[in-house]
Amino acid sequence: MAAFFAWGNTPNSFVVGNGSLLDYQNLPEEYAGKFKSYEWNAMTLRAFYTGPQGFHWALQPGNAWSAVAPTTLLPFLKTQHVVDRPSEGTPRGSCQYVAFTPKGSAWFARYSNKTCLWGPPDALPSTFLNVVADLEAHHPRKDECIDFAVFGAHELLLLRFENGNSGMFLPDDPNLRRRISPDLVVEVEDRLKDGWTLGNRTALCHFDSARWFIEWKRGASAEFKYSAGEGDAASEDLKRISKVLSGVGNNATLVADHQAADLAAANAAFQGQIMINRILTR
Q1: What's the burial of 134, exposed, middle or buried (CB within 10 Å: 0-12/13-18/19+)?
Q2: Is the dihedral of CA 124, 128, 131, 135 positive or negative?
Q3: What does pTM read for this prediction?
C-alpha cells in the first residue's frame, strides 16, 4: 500500500509509512523488530492492523500473513475456512481485514468472498452487538453486509457497509459517551454529512479517543485526518506523522534517528545496570 498508519499499545506509540519512508516510536516487542529491520514497510505490507497486548495482523503480497492474536481468532485467519452456517457450505476465501477490540479478547474479520466472522459475543461492545441485532432483523445480508469495522475506546464504533456508506455508533451509557473525544465526534459527523466514507486505513487508539487516524474517501478523492492527542509529546508525534505522510525527508535520516535513539536507550540501560551492581556489591 502507498501509505499506512497504526497505533501502538502505549502513549506516544505509533508506526507510519509512506512509500519508502517509515517512522515509528515505542512499538510493542511483538512487531517492533519487523519495522526496525525494515522487513515491513509501506511497500511490503498490503494491510496492517493492531490491537492491545501486542496483537496485530499483517497482510503481505500473495496473501501471506503474520499475526499475534487471541486464540479464538487464529483458526479463522487461515484461507478457505468454511462458514459456521452449514446450510451455506461455502468457503470464506482469504482474510482481508481484521479488527481488535480495545480489551483484546474480541475481534472482527472480513473475507474475500464478502463474508465476515466476529466474536466472542460476550466480549464485544454493546454498540457492535446492537448494530448486528438490527441487521439480523432487517437486512437480507444480515451481519455479512458489514465491510469494515473499527473499535475505539469507550465502545465507540465506526462501520462501513457493502453499499459504501459509513456510520458512527456511540454507546447508550452517558458516562461512556461523554468520555469520547468531542473533536473526533464532530470530525466524523461532519464528514459523513458531506458524503465521505471510511477508508481501510482508518485506525482508532484503543485506550485514548483523542488519538485517531481516519482515511476519508469520496468518489476519486481521499484524505487523511488525524489527531495524536494532547500535550507536547503528542504535538511532536503529530509533526513526525505529518512529515512522513507528506513525503518530506528521506528514509536514511529516519533510520539514523532510530539507530541513535536505540543506542541511547541501550547506553542508559547499561549505565543503570552498573549503578545497580555497585549498590548490590557494597
Answers
A1: exposed
A2: negative
A3: 0.86
